[in-house]
Amino acid sequence: MPLLRSFAPRSTLSSSSLSLLLRCSCAHLPQRKMASHIVGYPRIGPKRELKFGLESFWDGRAVLKICSSHARCSARTVFVSWREIGFDTYFSMARGNASVPAMEMTKWFDTNYHFIVPELGPDTKFSYSSHKAVSEYKEAKALGIDTVPVLIGPVTYLLLSKPAKGVEKSFPLLSLLGSILPIYKEVIAELKAAGALWIQFDEPILVLDLDSHQLAAFSKSYSELKSSFSGLNVLIETYFADVPAEAYKAITSLNGISGYGFDLVRGTNTLDVIRSMGFPSGKYLFAGVVDGRNIWANDLAASINTLQALEAVVGKDKLVVSTSCSLMHTAVDLVNETKLDSEIKSWLAFAAQKVVEVNELAKALAGEKVEAFFSANAAAHASRKSSPRVTNDEVQKAAAALTDSNHCRTTNVSARLDAQQKKLNLPILPTTTLGSFPQTTELRRVRREYKANKITEEEYVKAIKEEINEVVKLQEELDIDVLVHGEPERNDMVEYFGEQLSGFAFTVNGWVQSYGSRCVKPPIIYGDVSRPKAMTVFWSSMAQSMTSRPMKGMLTGPVTILNWSFVRNDQPRSETCYQIALAIKKEVEDLEAAGVQVIQIDEAALREGLPLRKSEQSVYLDWAVHSFRITNCSVKDTTQIHTHMCYSNFNDIIHSIIDMDADVISIENSRSNEKLLAVFREGIKYGAGIGPGVYDIHSPRIPQQKRLRIESTKC
């Protein structure tokens, strides 16, 4: 059976219609030999073909079928060129249009992938408005590929939704189960009629700390769907963390289910749960031993040990080797990295290579072990462990010494704001932007030619200086109070810094989808991190010399650099974060010494790294907040420290945000109906400055001045 090299895009479930999600998941199920399975695969294409197709469509340069062909072009992605709800509606939900703002967007659990939050209420009427799942299954089947359709489970869908505007915040979303399950039954019936043998229901919500009512709703949902499962094999898939014992009991007690999938990479205790609580006889266990969230080659010997331990519980004929989650969270194919250092490259595995790892593990368990493959894997791990480029003793010692202090600033925020106001003399409601201005084709050309040595350093600096000057003039004309230089010299808010820090490696095509057509290329942190020289001082000083108004120095914080990189897995993440924090601290001190009075240290991804289980969250928040404080603990009271967070829920970390002790925090406020802003004024004492973002830069919609004025007065 051929391996599917790309999988269908997710759909959204709207408030008035149900467009059920499908990823065509690759599987060999069930067979006499050891079975293997892929939870999901990157949909963007090896070189971002889907991105360019989508943007061509949005720009009016392509029709729907052309957009669809780009999605297919590299790897048989099945992407239909029409939907009953229509592309205009579909994309307006995500991007807004001239009359309607975009829907709220937030992070998919603790990943950097985003989803559009469904808005529901007691009057919501679900309808089967898209046959996408069935159409894509049939298309794959016509290509000779028998796939496993993947649907977001009903409980995960509802619990990730929110009450629509005008609906009470306390509205019980699970009360809509009775309305939504009939739509699931329709889709299941069509998939069965089309010949589907397996259907995968993703229920990652089960790794959270659900209460008894929510678990009962989960059990009830699949009990009601049971009659629809006749003649089908059904897989319940979980990922991103351990499944709590009570949730495990609820999952494995279901009738009519053929198999259960668990993340055994991030779910470090799941093996013990399975051993202690047992596993239902006659059911398949999909063992997620290949990491879907990182780019390091699997430790095949360790995975074999885990799989053999599971064999003793469930039996060899009921064990399926799988990825820990969808591979959409990792890069596509290492083959496309022709410029990557050969030693570092030998330590890596992207999505295509992880598919091979899954199959090789399955073959080994079936008695068909390829010794050469396992030997090469062991050699790569030994090389990485012994490589001198990984460890820097000086950096290790400096990071270890950080535990001797909490690195707080010596003066409280109220006193600092007074001192800063006397020096900066800002108006009552000052304005600023978050940093980067649009990257033009010309700017990208200049950077590309400089990197390729086609233009001199003098020519490069001249071109960037001219762009900064234009950005400064524009902001002054708009009467912005605290300016930014626009960051024309930067490619990405993480990659730019990583390129100037030791311990980082970079790819050419290691793209990962963040949302829609937005893709990021995470750096690879392979070793200890340090700052050889100043990274931003030259450009920030130049920009400040062009204006008498305050010019922000723009930095990415250590937690965000960590969470938006592929991080080494041979030491605790906290140690790596402390190393990055020390590097950023040196940059902050140099900016201040150069006369920069306002410094923004973005921590857009602080919430993203929060563990999904509450019992693990305090440890993460302690070292994450500590890392941020390290970066700016030594600055003067008159130096104003900003931070920025976006597209996250702050309710459960608001006290940690306060503990960060920034002078000003900027937040997303345009998509969330002021939900994020409300956190800072309901039941807490927040004494620092706050900047609600009132202009959605990810939407082509231009908000009305009246709306901007109304939002501004509410801060």
Automatic annotation (TrEMBL):
Q: Which GO terms describe its molecular function?
A: 5-methyltetrahydropteroyltriglutamate-homocysteine S-methyltransferase activity; zinc ion binding
* Short name of any one Pfam family annotated for the protein: Meth_synt_1
Sorted alphabetically, which InterPro entries does this protein's record hold? Cbl-indep_Met_Synth_N, Cobalamin-indep_Met_synthase, Met_Synth_C/arc, UROD/MetE-like_sf
Q: Which residues does the UniProt record annotate as the domain Cobalamin-independent methionine synthase MetE N-terminal? A: 36-62, 84-313
Catalytic class of the enzyme: transferase
Needed cofactors, names only, are: Zn(2+)
Q: Which residues cross the membrane?
A: none
Pathway the protein acts in: Amino-acid biosynthesis; L-methionine biosynthesis via de novo pathway; L-methionine from L-homocysteine (MetE route): step 1/1
Binding-site residues for 5-methyltetrahydropteroyltri-L-glutamate, renumbered to this chain: K51, N112, R518, C519, W564
Q: Which residues form the Cobalamin-independent methionine synthase MetE C-terminal/archaeal domain?
A: 429-707
The record describes the protein's role as:
Catalyzes the transfer of a methyl group from 5-methyltetrahydrofolate to homocysteine resulting in methionine formation.
Question: What is the name listed in the Swiss-Prot or TrEMBL entry for this protein?
Answer: 5-methyltetrahydropteroyltriglutamate--homocysteine S-methyltransferase
Q: Which organism is it from?
A: Ananas comosus var. bracteatus (red pineapple)
The taxonomy runs: Eukaryota, Viridiplantae, Streptophyta, Embryophyta, Tracheophyta
